[in-house]
Structure formats: C-alpha cells, structure tokens
Amino acid sequence: MRKLAPLTLAALLAWATTAAAAGPYWVDELRLPAAWQLSEGAGVRVGLIDTGVAADPDLDGAVRPGADFPDLGAPAGDAIGHGTTMALLIAGRGTAGTRGVAPKAEILPARLTGGPADAVAAVRWAVDQGAKVVNLSLGSGGRTTEYDDALTYARDHDVVVVAAAGNAGEDREVTSPADRPGVLAVSAVDRAGKFRDDVSVSGPEVSFAAPGVDISTSRPGEKAPTSGTSQAAAIVSGVVALVRSRYPDLTAAQVTDQLARTAKDLGAPGRDAEYGYGLIDPVAALSAEPDTGTPWWVIALWSAGGVLVLGAGFVLLKRRRP
Asked: Hey, which family's this protein in (predicted)?
C-alpha cells in the first residue's frame, strides 16, 4: 500500500489551469502540470547518448558542453535532429513551445557517430560528468553484450540507465542495450494508453511503458520521427530526473522501485511483456512515500544475471501489483 502526499489546492488549480490550455496530449496524459508542482528536475544532469543537440530556444540554458564519440572534429550541432528532439522531451524549457518532462534538468549531450564501443565511451563520459540519468534512445538491432562495460560502470556509480525497447518494423524483440541487466527498457503506448505493436516491440525485459505515438515538439522542420520507443524512453528519463531531484538520497535501485510501485498497471495484472510494470506515473512517483529498502526483484534486475533471474521469476513478478 503506497502512501500519497496530498497535492495542495494551489497545485491542483495550477494543473487544471494549465491542462485547459492546448498542449501535447502526453503532457495531460502524464498529468505533468501537477507533477511540476512537486519537482521540475532541478539539479539533475541527464546524459543523452544520441545524434547531438542543435541550438533551440527551448533548450537555452539546458545544455551542458558536450563531446563526440568518436571525435571526428565535426561542427557542433545535430544534423539528424533525433537528439535535439529527445533533449526537448526531457528538458525543454517551454520558452518557445516545448516544455519537457523535467524542465529544470540539464542535458549532457554525447554525439554518437560510431558503434557500441563508442557508445560505451559515451556512457562512461556522461557518468564522469555527473549524469544521474543516462538516456539511450538507440538500439543495436539485436542482442549483444558489447554495452555491458558501460552499463556496469553506470550501475557502480549509482546512475539510472533508460533505453528504448525497440521499434516494430525494425526490431523483432527487445534489443541491446535495452535488454541488458539493470537497464530500464521502455515500450510505447498511444494517447489512449494502449500498447502499439505497430510501433513498439514487447518482451519480458520491458520495464515501463510511456507515450510514444505522435510525440511532436515545437521545433521548426522537425526531422525526427514522431512515433517510437525513442520518445517513450526520453519521457521516462525525464520522469527519473523528476524523482531524483525530489528524492536526492534515493539510490538508483530505489528510484527504480519507486517508479515500479507507482506505475499504472495495464494489460495483464502485474508485470507483462507489453507494459512492464505499467504506464509511468510521475505524480504518483513524486507523491508516494519512498521505500528506502532494496526489494529482491530490483537486486535481480541489477545483477549480472538479471535477465535470466527475471525470466525464471516471471510468474512470481506478474503476481506483484504496484
């Protein structure tokens, strides 16, 4: 049974006023205006391993100096647009129209143009630069252990790693790095909260679901696709930043438990292959009294054989309800 700290009347009025204005559906679906009364992600750095970040008025003051992996001496920016969109979803300031999930968090952009070895170096760099969350809206197209060195490094430094589960049409299963132990793999749902098998893959490794269909930003000439698990993962990374800002003393494992205990259970009761522990719920995660213990299932998730342990205990986990 979770204990919820009641929102103040002012917070509820602010939420109602903001929700009445036209905005992205996912902001209303996740009740972000109410969540922002509790946390805006201040003081949390999010490592963004992606295609870089271009200048955007909604990101003024949000982006820290970045690095390239490998460093090819190319001009700073984002020729593809994918990384910029993820940055907006995570930490957009709302100056010109896009307010991200954690509008006071900071982005550490690692522009990735190489393969898994470069991604490993990028994750380690982000951790060393003070990231408390690392977003990996990318995938290898299959399963590999090549990311494990970086993921272990992040775990050893108390960093939450969030990754896109994989996109339908490109992937057949949850791909690496999302399938690796200790990573929060995120699937995509639409505006009705329904898992979309034409957008997202499913699998026992899925940890959470988040909006990932028709997720546009105010960026002119947006180049990135508007549907996919990349967007869903960015949204969850933003929620992690909110929780880490509100509860700075929680470990990465305890943050994971906080999200799981408060997620909105959808699909089959308990954890399932489409929604994981459920639809991420920022307001509940920020309102519930934290459990400062570390449950056995989190230890299993974060262990070297975490995927195998979870697979063996899948029936037991399905009985657990938030």
From this structure: Belongs to the peptidase S8 family.
Total domains in the chain come to 1
pLDDT at residue 300 is higher than 50 = yes
Say which CATH number the domain at 227 has. Answer: 3.40.50.200
Burial class of residue 91 (count of CB atoms within 10 Å of its CB; 0-12, 13-18, 19+): buried
Residue 196 lies in a domain: yes
Q: Which residues are catalytic?
A: 50, 82, 230
Neighbours of 68 (CB within 10 A): 18
- Residues 173 and 311 sit within 8 Å (Cβ to Cβ): no
Q: Is residue 14 part of a domain?
A: no
pTM metric for this prediction? 0.86
For residue 167, report the phi and psi dihedrals to the nearest 5 degrees.
-105, 135
Task: Tell me whether residue 17 is in a domain.
Answer: no
Strand order in the sheet with 45-50: 67-69, 106-112, 45-50, 133-136, 160-164, 183-189, 206-211
